[in-house]
Write a structure and sequence with these properties.
Radius of gyration: 25 Å
Number of strands: 0
Helix content: over 70%
Shape: globular
CATH topology of one domain: Serine Threonine Protein Phosphatase 5, Tetratricopeptide repeat
Strand content: under 5%
CATH architecture of one domain: Alpha Horseshoe
Length: 445
């Protein structure tokens, strides 16, 4: 046998190196496809669950490195990321990371019940409400005895404005498993239908069913605080926010609650301090929006303009990202419409209010937003049918009642408009001064 020539040996070596490099690259890339847990900053890094979260995610990642296609471990990691997105406010990153993991499971087993439920949940978080409902319907067909899927259907129908169907889903959920999640949904449904005492009772039950200090329990406490705010019970609202801060020091939504209480009392410096502290803890656009309002009320226009600019850029970025790739970002048209109104640019608010309404024409919040934007654009007659739809559930949300009253007065419906304004102001006399002054000028004018 002839010895191999140097060129042939060299060529074989090149082929071997190329194949070996490709093998290393492919297998190495497999190891890096798992999403990473982003470091927390500031007070969130000191939260009691952070050490446990890091350990849990590391354990799940190690297990997936050993068994990349294990569906149970993949979905557990997806749930950890979804919870982390809720706690940190980094929804764009963690929703996308979770969705990639869920889709990986569904690619191998399209009927995996838990994966379908998580996909629906992510869609709802991204404000893809119709898609979220459709996916949840797939899940309920395969398992009609699971409470969680009825919670998803309740949420989707609420956001789409299918309120009677939402009631049915909430009833099914609580009948299967009465717990913090089902009681919370019962509370929200009752609030939508104007039963504030019933909503308060149900959220009390939710809090009692949870574990003190856990994020979902303290979130339910935030709901209770809001209900007290909207029924002229500021002392009770304050108690809830302080209780949450005792259980979870620096809990950002409780800090924001204390900020609202201070703002109602016109202590704007204190309100700013609360919101600034909350902003440092979590990247939450609504905190930036409130800071823009508070700095304006405190005659610090430069700071107000800066926060309005930052908030606008964040919302626009989310919206543009969602339009390009629905798996990232989320639709922010309602938030943009309201922000443009606060910036006194109602013409820019209108297309966003219309886009949100087109996405869910029966939702009372979307109808209220479009009605108010139309009114602010000098189109009170066009606003009337939308605000009428917004009132169809008999919601007692104070700002909604006052805005509806203003629009009705502008359309010559003095009796109905005056009654709505008086009702709204009796529930929340400390609401936005701009709305109050507009209402009072119309009543006395």
């Amino acid at each position: 046998m002839k010895p191999l020539s140097r060129n042939i040996l060299y060529g074989a070596l090149v082929v071997f190196c190329t194949v070996f490099t490709a093998f290393i690259f492919i297998n190495g890339s497999k190891k890096t496809t798992l999403p990473e847990l982003r470091p927390r900053q500031g007070a969130l890094a000191n939260a009691p669950e952070w050490t446990t979260t890091q350990a849990t995610v590391k354990k799940l990642q190690d297990e997936l490195t050993a068994k990349p296609d294990d569906p149970r471990t993949t979905l557990l990691l997806a749930k950890e990321f979804m919870q982390e997105g809720r706690i940190t406010g980094d929804y764009s990153y963690y929703n996308k990371a979770s969705l990639d993991l869920v889709n990986k499971v569904l690619a191998k087993d399209s009927r995996n019940f838990e994966a379908i439920c998580l996909k629906s949940m992510i869609y709802l978080s991204q404000h893809r409400f119709s898609e979220g409902k459709n996916v949840a319907m797939e899940a309920v067909q395969s398992n009609p005895y699971n409470s969680f899927v009825y919670g998803l259907l309740c949420d989707a129908n609420v956001e789409l404005g299918n309120y009677d169907e939402a009631v049915s889903m909430a009833d099914k959920m609580v009948s299967i498993r009465p717990d913090i999640r089902s009681y919370s949904r019962v509370s929200y449904i009752r609030e939508i239908f104007g039963d504030l005492p019933g909503a308060i009772d149900a959220i009390h039950m939710a809090i009692a069913a949870g574990f003190p200090g856990q994020e979902d329990t303290e979130w339910a406490r935030m709901v209770l605080g809001h209900l007290y705010e909207d029924s002229n019970q500021l002392d009770k609202a304050t108690e809830q926010y302080q209780a949450a801060l005792n259980e979870r020091p620096d809990y950002p939504f409780a800090l924001a609650g204390m900020g609202r209480i201070a703002a109602y009392k016109k202590d704007y410096p204190a309100a700013i301090q609360y919101y600034e502290k909350a902003r440092i803890v979590i990247s939450e656009v609504s905190f930036l929006e409130q800071l823009a309002i508070l700095y304006r009320l405190n005659n610090q226009q430069k700071e107000a303009d800066e926060y309005a600019r930052v908030t606008l850029n964040a919302l626009l970025s989310d919206n543009i990202t969602a339009q390009k790739d629905k798996d990232q970002g989320h639709y922010s048209d309602m938030e943009l419409a309201n922000l443009y109104l606060q910036m006194n640019e109602p013409a820019k608010a209108l297309p966003h209010a219309q886009a949100e309404h087109q996405r869910r024409p029966q939702n009372i919040d979307a109808c209220e937003t479009l009605a108010w934007v139309l009114y602010r654009n000098g189109q009170a007659a066009e606003a009337l049918p939308y605000i009428t739809t917004a009132l169809r559930t008999k919601s007692q949300h104070p700002e909604r009642l006052v805005k509806a009253g203003i629009i009705m007065l502008a359309n010559g419906q003095k009796k109905e408009g005056t009654e709505l304004i008086n009702k709204g102001l009796s529930l929340k006399p400390y609401m936005d001064e701009t709305i109050v002054k507009t209402a009072q000028s119309l009543i006395t004018g």
